[in-house]
Specification:
With 368 residues, this protein is of the alpha/beta class. Among the domains are: 2-43; 133-323, von Willebrand factor, type A domain (Rossmann fold). It is 34% helix and 23% strand. It has nine helices and 14 strands. The strands form three sheets. A six-stranded mixed sheet has the order 7-6-5-8-9-10. The protein has a four-stranded antiparallel sheet with strand order 4-11-1-13. Strands 3-2-12-14 form a four-stranded antiparallel sheet, with no helix packed on it. α6 (208-219) packs parallel to α7 and α7 (243-252) packs parallel to α8 (274-287). The protein is globular.
Length: 368
Amino acid sequence: MKIKRQKANIKYQKLSAMVSLVALLLGLIIASPFVHSQSGRQGQDPKKTKPEVTPPNTPQPKIRVPENPPQKPPKKKDEEDTIRIDSDLVTVVTSISKKSPTDSLNLTAADFEILEDGVPQEIANFARDSEQPLNLVMLFDSSLSVTQKINFEKRAAAKFFERVIRPQDRAALFAVSTDVEIIQDFTNRIPTLVNATKQLKPKGATSLYDAIYLAANYLNAAPGRRVIVIVSDGGDTTSQKGLLDALRQTQLSDAVVFSVFTGNFGMSQNLRDLAGERALETMATETGGEVFRPKATPGTQSDEVDDLSLKELDKAFASLAEQLRTQFILGFLSTNEKRDGTFRKLTVRIKKEGFTARARAGYYAPKD
């Protein structure tokens, strides 16, 4: 009996050992990565399995791109070696104010001084306005807010083209409302430009910053002086670009911005768009231009008021035309040879007494 009990115990121990071994093997198989991969459960952190969220596309300005944008003339073979030099040449269009109208503008390169970040620069190129073609884009506010004044604003703009455009110059006309529409591509034909002003009709809201951004791009390939003329109260309601976006693009294209302010200047501040005025001032100050402010008139209540408004606008446009005829074009190669794309401050001075220079506040260095 004792021997039988010992044999039973041995069998029981062997059976228990086998059960334990089978359990261990099953545990290893279940924990195996192969089994997990077959079942689709790979033991990953659930946070890592969440799909990435794709940010929405950045909205683009509501613009109608010109069918025939300006093109740079093809380069000759002997010009290929100068591409790098041309890209590094910093051009500074400078307008001159003088204390006495009798003072002569017979200035030379030696009369000017340019500083970049406070460091004097050597003037390599020097020219008068008559030696450089003018490329001008007029941005005409044609939103519903200018309905009362648009007729005499159109007449004043037409006279401006007649005063300014020479055979070597080109101008384009953009209508600025909710969308930016190119009424007339670049041309030097004054009758064509005058006829384009007659097509302006009030409609929609105002996308002024989008218009400035587009005009700067439009001018970027044009050789010679680049000028943007804004006829507006400076208000913006529907642009998808901001003021700083428009300013940066203008600085990159080396364009000078002038404005003819058509708001209620001189009246109560409650009736004025002060933010719009400041926007126009910023664009002018930073690019070397100026804001012209015709005297305010009460609207279009009579023919007499219309005539007065037209005369005031004519004076503003005449002053603008004079500014464009008294510009000097200076060029220099920066002593700072870094091609880092940084913004560098500019200061232009005239050594002769009685003269004041106005030029852009700075430029973006070239970048490789």
